[in-house]
Every structure is written in structure tokens, then in C-alpha cells.
Design goal:
alpha/beta, Beta-Lactamase, 5 domains, eight-stranded mixed β-barrel, 31 helices, elongated, binds ligand LFPHGCPZ, EAL domain-containing protein
């Protein structure tokens, strides 16, 4: 060491100068001595001596001990007290300033030199320790750590650095027992921390533990603690010493990273990590699943989704500009899978900047839009196409019709509209089930498509209704030919469920602009024409004519009028006697509906039944007829007249197995009529209608009523199935009776029907007997019963009652009729 600089603080000038000389002679570098504490402080600040020799009694308000204490607040300069006294109190005060030695005056040069040397040595050591401590402190600061220490024997924390910052509690908590400290640990982690201490005390070392500490404000901080046991050689005292670090930020960053990694691995979205030139650094499994590429096929290559094939140059430029401006871009990219198939994606590109703000990476995240696109297309298709037949639906058909009409208007052309309605489709659906019905509709759709030109539209409007839009019609007659072709195509048998079906259709045709310039009018016209084709006997077509609309309007008017008449009680029942041909005795009556119309007078059943049959009114009307007829039959009995069979006509629409039998039972119950006196008449054509009708017949028969087939011979009854039906009576249609005896064929038919009825154990009844010859013929062929103008016309209930009374008196029916005028006013 170079000459040590020594400051002497001594109020006795002679002593001070002498000491300065002695120091110099010993090889030190003493500055001029000072006499007061203030001077000493100023000199230390300006000269930074290596050592101070401090007299305790000096000039000024501060003595040497106080001055030394002030110096130590600022400097680590070693101080040696010079004192002539050694009383205990002064020495005690001096000890508090941790002096580096005492020189009791007078002292020898040897003592002076030795004391100074020892002080300088110690000061150098202290300085080294301080520096080392500071280094350690700075290192801990830099590592954001704090030290801690626990006395193993007493399990008491001796020291916790930065306690307030790390734990949120002051030293008071950490200078106490271990258990007190444990209270600051998250309760779920206390065990872990306690066990770690036990392990350490067992000699296994603390290692590293991480636990949660709960601050007084409730916030949770992750702390990492490590430590080792040190045993002081001198005292064998064991101390556990280590460092603590707040790792909350690291833990949450790790958690975020873990989550990010999980998202990266598990998400179904595709993720690409790209460098600043869009070269792929990594991709996730989602990317591979969507695109079909292997991870190592894409890493190191330009991102395939950002190739010029996927983005137009303009889009590419927009994307680049947006990324520069906003550091983010999103939009749709039309990519390709590895197998070359299209891959529409919704992509989001985010730029990642490094610490200097430069873009270092891009993250491309995308979702596959294929399923959404397919669903959109499917929805689009469903919105415009019929799911059963895949034909355009009503919406699309209307659109196409509008376009065709607009084009025709521009070119002064014509558009044809064909309404195709399948005949009796409902029956097929009802009897064979909906799946056969669906198959048939599909077959019809196919046949229709084949029957028209490619540029024409075939649409399904719903149910069994189809529409054909024919563009650029040159000659309207061509529409008739097309309708013919459609009817012929549809009538070709198709095999469904192993059975052959030939379906017929009725087609209505309207023409733009002749039949309407608005599509609604054109459609209405085709619809009206289609109904006209149906009315004309089905399986045919009809062009729209103006009169048809008038007809339709008339039909609506009739329906309204009938409803009104029904509500106003204008409907009546007339009864036509049925007689035993052998005796002429009245054995029953047939109830026939009449309408006492306020304007048209008495109207017949043909003005009522067909109109009612077009709507649900037939149900209400049919119920009313049944109730009225049963009530009348009962009323005659109650009036003392003989029991009569009451025949009531029931239309096809009433033949519902779950309804009609219930209605009949309820009417029989309420009127008290013997079921055996009620006969339900159904036409032969109703019989052919469906199994539904057969079920209804059986249910009616079970009630005890009798059943008759009306108009027999006009339909095409399957004779085989007839025998299994519970039919009691067959009515020979008037058309076969009226030409007897002039028409041999009719005679033969009537004869055959009678014979067949007998074979099937049924009674034959002939209707429309007007002449004696007819009666005689039928009687001779064994026909048991009959009705007709020869005996009596349909008449009121009172007239029937009068006839019955005549009959009771023994008057012949025909005489009674001709005498009593008991005939019906001829219906209009
Ligand atoms: N569903 C229902 N159908 C009914 C009801 N009431 C009648 N009808 C059916 O309407 C058709 C026409 O009936 P209507 O105008 O009453 O004619 C009946 C007789 O007036 C007529 N008739 C009777 N005898 C003769 C005759 O000698 N010559 C002649 N030219 N006409 C005659 O025939 C009709 C009775 O026929 P039918 O029923 O076939 O025995 C008719 O089909 C009625 O069935 C009803 O309430 N519901």
C-alpha cells in the first residue's frame, strides 16, 4: 500500500504536531491536524483520509465520539480513538461507533504503528466484505431475488429480504416462528412448504420449491424458494439460507404458453407460423388435417395459402398494405388442398414485431369454409328445389316464369304454362302409403323432364301438382302436343313395390300474353283449365278459355249460395218409396235431398250434392241427411205407421272409417231407430275408391245397418272382391232399366246383375222403373224390389205417410199415387 493518509483530530496543538511528526517518521502521510469535529468532518469530506486518529475531547460542540459517528454515516473511514481516560461510560459510547482501536495516551511509536496497521488491515478486510456484500446484493437485485435465513434449531426465520415486496408483510411476520410464516402461504400449498422444510431438516436439502403466497390484499403470488443448511464451524449452529424469487410473471407466462401450445395443438383451425418473408416456420395439426399436407412438407416453404394462385395480384397488394398499416389482415382466400381440391378459407394474418418494432413473424390462422359453403349451397338449393323430386319448387318456378314472360315481352314471343295434376293420386297415397306415393312422384318428375325440352322448366308446386314453363312457343298447338305427350308418358306403367302403376294426369294450358300478362293471372288460367280437363273426365288436357273463369266464378257462387241455403234451413228431404215387385207393397223409402231455393224453387239432388262434394260442406250436409232421415223414420213409426226401411245415400268423401260409423251410431242412439231399418247406399264408384271404404262398410255393418250398392253396372267392380263385402242389396242402375224392353243389351245386363246378386246372396232392386213392361221384365227375372215413377216419385214425408195409410187401408200404391196427387213437384 502507498503511504497511508492519516488525519489527526486533536485539540492540543503541540500534541497534534508531535503526533504528525511521529506519523511521518513512521512512513505515513499525515495531513495538518484539525482541532474540532466540524473541521474533522470537512477534512474527511475533502481529503478522504485512509484513517482518522480521533481524540475524544476536542474543540467545538461535538466531541470525538460524536464526530466519529457523523463520519461513519457517510464514510467507512476507520477511526482510532486517542484518549487519556478510560472511564467506562466514555468507552461504552466509543464502542458504539465500532472504532478500529484505542490508543491510550501516552503511547509509544510501536503502539501507534501497530494500532494503525491493524486498523488499516481490518478496514481493508471490511471494505472487501462490503464490496462482496454489495456484489451479492446487486446480483440478487439483478436476479430479482431476495435472501432468507432460518434458524434450524429454533425454526425461526431470522431474515427475509424484500419481505414487503415478496410477501406483502413486514419483517414482523418473518422474524417470528415458522408457523406464523406458514400462514402467509396459500392454504393448498402449506403442506408442500412444510414438508419441504421437514425434508431439509432431515438432511435431504430443500432443493427448489414453488408455492403461492397470499398477500394481505388477497392477491396471489408465485414464489420460488431454494436453500441449503449451513453449519457454523464455531458454534455448530445450523442455519437454512437461500434465496426467494417472485416467479408470478413467469408462471403466468408459462400458463399462457401452455394454453397457447394447447390451442396450437388442439384447435381445428389451421395455424401457420411464418417468418417475415412468409416462409413457413411451423404449422399445427389443424393445418395438416385441413390441407392434407404433412408438417415437414410445408416447413421451410412459402405458405401455400398465400401463393399467387390463391390471391389475385390486387388482393395480394391489398393484404400487404393492410398488414403494413394495421399489422393485421383478414379475408377469404381460395386455397387448394394437397390433392388439388378447392379449399375456401377465412384467414386472419397478424404481424408479430420484435423488440425493435420490426416485423419478425406472421401468424396465419384460418378456418375451413368448405362445410359452410356446402351448407350455403345446400340451403340455396333447398330454397329453390323440391327435396323429393329435385325439381325447381314454386319459388324458383315463379322466378323462371317471370323471366320467360319478360323475355317474351321483349321479343314479342309467347310463353306456355302447363298445369299437370295427377288423377287419383290421393288414393294411391292413402292405400299404398306415402313411400309408394313418393316413389311415384319421383317417377312422374323423371318422366316429365324427359317429355319436355331441356330449356323448358318442370317444377313441382306441391302435392301432385306440377308445372311446365315452355319458353319461346311458336305455335300454341305445340302446347297441346306437349300435353298429349306428357299424358302418354305418364300413362306408361311404372313398377313400384313389385306392382305396375299407370297414372293418368289432367293438364291445363295457358298462354302468355293471350291468357294473362301477369304471372298470377297466367297461373290461375292454367289452373282453371286443368280443373276443366278434370271435369271433362280426367286424363286429358284443356286450353284455357275465358268462359272457364266464368264457370269457376259460377261454381264459387253456387258454393256460397248452398252454404247460405243450408244455414237458412232451405234443404229438405223427399222420400221415394221402394216396393216389393211381387206385391207392390211399400217396404222402404230412399231419402233424397232437395233444396227449396228462394229464387229457383225446388232443386234436385244434382244441384246440391256435386256442389257440396267440392268442399267439406258434404260432411255437414251428409250428417244432416242421416239425422233427418233417421228422425223421420222414427217419427212415422211413432205416428203408428208400419216400420219402413230408410235408404240414405252417402257420398265417397263421407266414407271415413274413423268418422262415419261413429256418426251413424250416435244418430241411431239419439233417434232410437232400429239399426236394421237403416240402409246406407254407396255408389259403385265409391266402392272402387279404396280400402278405406271397405273398412267403413265393415264398421257400419257391425252396427247392424244394411248396405246397398247404388248405380250398379256403371262402375267396374271387381266381382271377386264384391263377395267378401257385407253388401245386402244391389241397385240396378236406371240407365239399364230405362230401355227395357227395347234394348237387348240392357236387358242382358239387368238380367246378369239380378243373377249375380242372387249368387252372392244379395237382394236385387231396380231403380227408375217407369213402365209396366219394365216391371214385368224385372219381376220375371227374379228382381225382388224396385222403385220408380211407375210406383211413386220422390215425395214429402207427409205424402209418404198418407200413402202408407192408404196402404194400411188396402189401397194399391199405384192407385193411391194417381188418386192422391202424392207426387213430388218436379225439381228444376
Ligand atoms: N250423397 C248423396 N246423394 C244423394 C242424396 N240425395 C240424392 N242423391 C243422389 O243424387 C243423385 C240424383 O238424385 P235425385 O235428383 O234425387 O234423383 C233421384 C230420383 O229422383 C231419380 N228417380 C227415381 N225414379 C226415377 C224414375 O223412374 N225415372 C227417373 N228419370 N228418375 C228417377 O233417381 C234418383 C235416385 O237415384 P238413386 O239414388 O241412384 O237410386 C242420385 O244419384 C242420388 O243417389 C243425398 O242426400 N246424398
Amino acid at each position: 500500500m502507498s503511504q497511508a493518509r492519516v488525519l489527526v483530530v486533536e485539540d492540543e496543538r503541540i500534541v497534534a504536531l508531535h503526533l504528525q511528526q511521529r506519523l511521518r517518521s513512521l512512513g505515513y502521510d499525515p495531513s495538518s491536524p484539525v482541532a474540532s469535529g466540524e473541521q474533522a468532518l470537512a477534512r474527511v469530506r475533502s481529503e478522504l483520509p485512509d484513517i482518522v486518529l480521533m481524540d475524544i475531547h476536542i474543540e467545538g460542540p461535538m466531541d470525538g465520539i460524536e464526530t466519529a459517528s457523523e463520519i461513519q454515516k457517510e464514510f467507512h473511514t476507520p477511526i482510532i480513538y486517542l484518549t487519556a481516560y478510560s472511564e467506562a461510560a466514555t468507552l461504552e459510547r466509543a464502542r458504539g461507533t465500532k472504532p478500529y482501536g484505542y490508543l491510550v495516551k501516552p503511547f509509544s511509536e510501536r503502539e501507534l504503528h501497530a494500532t494503525i496497521q491493524m486498523a488499516l488491515e481490518r478496514s481493508a478486510t471490511d471494505s472487501a466484505i462490503r464490496e462482496s456484500e454489495e456484489r451479492l446484493h446487486l446480483a440478487l437485485e439483478a436476479a430479482e431475488m431476495a435472501s432468507w435465513e432460518l434458524d434450524v434449531t429454533s425454526r425461526t426465520l431470522l431474515h427475509v429480504g424484500k419481505a414487503q415486496r415478496l410477501f406483502g408483510y413486514g419483517h414482523e411476520v418473518f422474524s417470528g416462528p415458522w408457523e406464523r410464516f406458514l400462514e402467509t402461504v396459500h392454504e393448498e400449498d402449506r403442506d408442500l412448504v412444510d414438508r419441504a422444510l421437514e425434508r431439509t431438516l432431515d438432511g435431504h436439502g430443500l432443493g427448489v420449491i414453488e408455492f403461492r403466497s397470499v398477500h394481505p390484499d388477497g392477491s396471489v403470488h408465485w414464489l420460488k424458494v431454494q436453500g441449503r443448511i449451513f453449519t457454523a464451524e464455531s458454534s455448530a449452529r445450523k442455519r437454512l439460507i437461500g434465496v426467494i424469487q417472485d416467479v408470478t410473471a413467469r408462471r403466468s407466462a408459462e400458463a399462457q404458453l401452455r394454453q397457447a401450445a394447447m390451442v396450437f395443438e388442439a384447435t381445428q383451425e389451421g395455424i401457420l407460423i411464418l417468418d417475415d418473408r412468409f416462409v413457413t416456420l411451423d404449422c399445427n395439426p389443424g393445418y395438416c388435417a385441413i390441407t392434407g399436407y404433412d408438417r415437414n412438407e410445408v416447413i421451410g416453404r412459402p405458405a401455400p395459402l398465400l401463393s399467387p394462385l390463391c390471391l389475385s395480384p390486387a388482393d395480394w397488394q391489398t393484404m400487404q398494405n393492410t398488414l403494413v398499416a394495421d399489422r393485421q389482415w383478414h379475408g377469404e382466400i381460395q386455397g387448394r388442398r394437397r390433392d388439388g381440391k378447392e379449399l375456401p378459407v377465412l384467414a386472419n394474418i397478424a404481424a408479430v414485431a420484435d423488440r425493435s418494432g420490426q416485423v419478425s413473424h406472421y401468424i396465419l390462422l384460418f378456418s375451413d369454409l368448405t362445410a359452410i359453403r356446402l351448407a350455403q349451397e345446400r340451403f340455396q338449393h333447398l330454397a329453390h328445389f323440391d327435396p323429393l323430386t329435385d325439381l325447381p319448387n314454386r319459388l324458383l318456378a315463379m322466378d323462371r316464369l317471370e323471366h320467360a314472360m319478360q323475355a317474351a315481352e321483349r321479343n314479342q314471343g309467347k310463353v306456355g304454362l302447363l298445369f299437370v295434376d295427377l288423377d287419383h293420386f290421393k288414393q294411391i297415397n292413402d292405400t299404398l302409403g306415402h313411400s309408394v306415393g313418393d316413389d311415384l312422384l319421383r317417377a312422374v318428375a323423371k318422366a316429365l323432364r324427359l317429355a319436355v325440352r331441356a330449356e323448358d322448366t318442370v317444377a313441382r308446386l306441391g302435392g301432385d301438382e306440377f308445372m311446365v314453363i315452355v319458353d319461346r312457343v311458336e305455335h300454341p298447338e305445340a302446347l297441346g302436343e306437349l300435353a298429349d305427350r306428357i299424358i302418354a308418358t305418364l300413362s306408361r306403367p311404372v313398377t313400384l313395390l313389385g306392382m305396375e302403376f299407370a297414372i293418368t294426369a289432367s293438364v291445363g294450358i295457358s298462354l302468355f300474353p293471350e291468357d294473362g300478362t301477369r304471372k298470377e293471372d297466367l297461373i290461375r288460367a292454367a289452373d282453371t283449365a286443368m280443373y276443366a280437363a278434370k271435369d271433362a273426365g280426367r286424363s286429358g288436357f284443356a286450353f284455357y278459355r275465358k268462359e272457364m273463369t266464368e264457370q269457376a266464378a259460377l261454381s264459387m257462387e253456387r258454393d256460397r249460395d248452398l252454404r247460405r241455403g243450408f244455414e237458412k234451413d232451405e234443404l229438405r228431404l223427399h222420400y221415394q218409396p221402394q216396393v216389393e215387385l211381387a206385391t207392390g207393397a211399400i217396404i222402404g223409402v230412399e231419402a233424397l235431398i232437395r233444396w227449396q231455393h228462394p229464387i229457383h224453387g225446388l232443386c234436385g239432388a244434382n244441384d246440391v250434392v256435386p256442389v257440396a262434394e267440392k268442399s267439406r260442406l258434404i260432411m255437414e250436409l251428409g250428417d244432416w241427411v242421416l239425422r233427418e232421415a233417421c228422425w223421420q223414420a222414427r217419427a212415422w213409426q211413432e205416428a203408428g205407421l208400419p216400420p219402413l226401411r230408410m235408404a240414405v245415400n252417402v257420398s265417397a268423401r263421407q266414407m271415413q272409417p274413423d268418422r262415419l260409423p261413429n256418426v251413424v251410431r250416435q244418430i241411431l242412439d239419439s233417434t232410437g231407430l232400429d239399426p236394421a231399418l237403416l240402409e246406407i247406399e254407396i255408389t259403385e264408384s265409391t266402392l272402387q275408391d279404396s280400402e278405406r271404404c271397405v273398412a267403413t262398410l265393415h264398421a257400419l255393418k257391425a252396427l247392424g245397418v244394411s248396405l246397398a250398392i247404388d248405380d250398379f253396372g256403371t262402375g267396374y267392380s271387381c266381382l271377386g272382391s264384391l263377395k267378401s263385402l257385407p253388401i245386402d242389396r244391389i241397385k240396378i242402375d236406371r240407365s239399364f232399366v230405362q230401355d227395357i224392353p227395347h234394348d237387348r243389351n240392357d236387358e242382358a245386363i239387368a238380367e246378369a246383375i239380378i243373377a249375380m246378386a242372387h249368387k252372392l246372396n244379395m237382394v236385387a232392386i231396380a231403380e227408375g222403373i217407369e213402365t209396366e213392361e219394365q216391371r214385368a221384365f224385372l219381376r220375371a227375372r227374379g228382381c225382388e224390389e224396385g222403385q220408380g215413377y211407375l210406383y211413386a216419385r220422390p215425395m214429402t214425408a207427409d205424402a209418404v205417410a198418407a200413402l202408407l195409410r192408404d196402404q194400411q187401408r188396402g189401397t194399391d200404391l199405384r192407385d193411391a199415387v194417381s188418386a192422391g196427387g202424392a207426387t213430388e213437384d218436379t225439381p228444376q
